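This follows on from our talk about sequence and fold. I would like you to pick a protein and set down its sequence and fold. Go ahead and set the record down below:
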Amino acid sequence: GSPINKAEFEYLFAVEQAYALLPYYEDLSGLTLIGHSHLCRVFTVTPRSVEEVSDKKFVLDTDKKYIISVGSVGQPRDGDPRASYVSTDGKVIRFHRLEYDVEDTVQRIYATPGLPNYLADRLRVGR
């Protein structure tokens, strides 16, 4: 769902898209986790600005709100085929990457009737 409308299915890829959240600043949680983009992205939001954070580990600032796209355990879109996820202790956000047997997964997809081969092919390159 969207941070604005939980019933809507919207991607949040870029700072420009995150700017659309400014009119809803007061309605946003301090930390909003989103998915389905298959990208690791962090946007900080204040009442007047949006910035993208590139650090893979950072401390949450209580004067900002955060929208974090947590990545993907499969079908990544950032050129890194490893699984990705986020962890937090409530104060620090950490992005993680894990190796897994991509080739085994590719072969299982090829062997599954009805699954398109491109789902397997892009696992190898993470796109």
Remarks:
- Helices lie at 15-18, 102-111, 117-125.
- Strands lie at 31-34, 40-45, 50-53, 57-59, 65-70, 83-88, 92-98.
